[in-house]
Amino acid sequence: MAGLAVAALLCGVPGLLAGPRSLQVETAPSAQQNYVWVNVGNVEGHLATYSSPEGAFSPDSSALALVSKGKIVVDGLTGGNLSIEKVLHPRIKDLSDLDIQSVNFLDPNTLFLMGTGIVHEKNKQDRPTPLIGFRWNIQQDALDGTVAMFGSSGGFGRPRYFPQIKFLGMYKDDTFILWSPISRKAMEIRIPELTREPHLYSFSPNGHWLLLAQIAGGGSPNPIVVRLSEHKFVDVLSGFQETVMSMRFSRDSGKLVTAGEDGQVRIWSVPDWKLLETLSGHKGPVRWAEFSPDGHWVASAGEDHTVRIWSADDGKAVQTLSESRAPVDTVTFSPDGNYVAATTDDQVLIWKKTPTGP
Fold first, then answer.
1. Cβ count within 10 A of residue 170
2. CA neighbor of 20 nearest in space, from 352, 356, 353, 357
3. How far is it, in rounded angstroms, from Cα 309 to Cα 319?
4. Average model confidence (pLDDT) for the chain?
5. pLDDT > 90 fraction of the chain, expressed in percent and rounded
6. For residue 181, which of 248, 112, 234 has the smallest C-alpha distance?
7. Cα 315 from Cα 307, distance rounded (Å)
8. Any residues with CB less than 8 A from the CB of 215 and at least 6 apart, and which?
9. Contact, 266 vs 279, CB < 8 A?
10. What is the DSSP letter of 5?
11. Phi then psi for 67, rounded to 5 degrees?
12. Cβ pair 345, 302 in contact under 8 A
């Protein structure tokens, strides 16, 4: 598919909530140090751990949806105080042991859920599903449409959902398949030079670029740049000695942030792919890094149990958020930039951006 076409398609539970812990921050001077992120709640459950949890925020940033013990809990964020607005109980006919892995808002009243389960069919042996995806109506607490199964024919890598473009991506052979949970239509993007599976990849929001990393059997950790209008490799981000663990574009597609096993967060310019800043401070691998919606901040999630906030403009450390007791898997900003949410295996932590002065 031509690059322009790609760009066009991409255009009540007791004990669940815990109060915020005491504020634990380390700060460093920065030209943009006008705010401090304050912990407003630590909640039992999880957000997406294999893809960005950005879609867990409602479009207006008034709510956060998370998975907790087989339920979907929608927490209100009004005024910075967490409150349970809705508890949903997803259930699918002829399917048991539903294990929901991620939840994303498609619109204020519709969620896109992904997970696995056990299929029961008359006169047949029960069998596990591949990854499934389905829309869920929040107000009716009911299935909206039908259930889709991904990769049931085998040979596909792990499907990944991209909240910025609202497409689910799958890879097989030399081809990426992008599937929309809204239209339920798919398109294919073939990259002839790609002969091995990339376990990590990221599409730019404008549909112009595809980044590939963790390529199976590859000897280099350096990510490869694909120009989608040509379906060709056009550049390499060099200088990595260890595995790249996440790659995320800014909302305007003008920058890229990578997180690495070497403990470094790197900011790159697009489309010349120059290294702008190297952000050092995490003690151990960094699992995830992501830009704020306005592009001025970066949040990173580390195995050192911290979330760190950086200035994307000058690369300076702004704040270290130390409330987590476990390695942090992913982190994201709310659409309005006023909240940061991070997830461990069993906990979601939320911070609110608070002005520090005039």
1. 18
2. 352
3. 5
4. 90
5. 82
6. 112
7. 15
8. 196, 197, 198, 199, 224
9. yes
10. H
11. -95, 130
12. no
Give me the residue label for tokens 């105080």: 81
Measured CA to CA, the distance from residue 66 to residue 329 in angstroms comes to: 14
User: Where along the chain do its domains lie?
Assistant: 24-355
Residue 357 confidence (pLDDT): 67
Number of helices (H), then strands (E), in the chain: 1, 30
Tell me which amino acid residue 25 is: V
Superfamily of domain 24-355: YVTN repeat-like/Quinoprotein amine dehydrogenase (2.130.10.10)
Residue count of the chain: 358
Q: What is the largest CA-CA distance in the chain?
A: 70
Other Cβ atoms within 10 Å of 197 Cβ, number: 20
What does the pLDDT average to over 331-348?
A: 97
- DSSP string computed for 311-347: ETTT--EEEEE---SS---EEEE-TTSSEEEEE-SSE
Q: How confident is the model at residue 8 (pLDDT cuts 50, 70, 90)?
A: very low
Question: What is the distance in angstroms between the CA of the first residue and the CA of the last residue of the chain?
Answer: 50
Q: Return the exposure string of 310-338: e unless at least 16 CB atoms fall within 10 Å of the residue's CB, then b.
A: bbbeebbbbbbbbbbeebbbbbbbbbbbb
Calculate the CA 52 to chain-centre distance: 0
Cα-based torsion angle of the residue sequence 97, 344, 333, 279 in order, rounded to the nearest 10 degrees: -140
The SS3 call for residue 80 is helix
CA–CA separation, 86 vs 259, rounded Å? 34
Mean pLDDT for the stretch of residues 309-322 = 96
Cβ neighbours for 205, distance < 8 A, ≥ 6 positions apart: 10, 164, 165, 249, 251, 252, 253
How confident is residue 218, by pLDDT bands cut at 50, 70 and 90?
confident
Q: By C-alpha distance, which of 322, 298, 328, 295 is closest to 310?
A: 298
Report how far residue 199's alpha carbon sits from residue 214's, in angstroms, rounded to the nearest whole number. Answer: 5
CA distance 333 to 70: 24
What is the Cα–Cα distance from 206 to 180, expressed in whole angstroms? 16
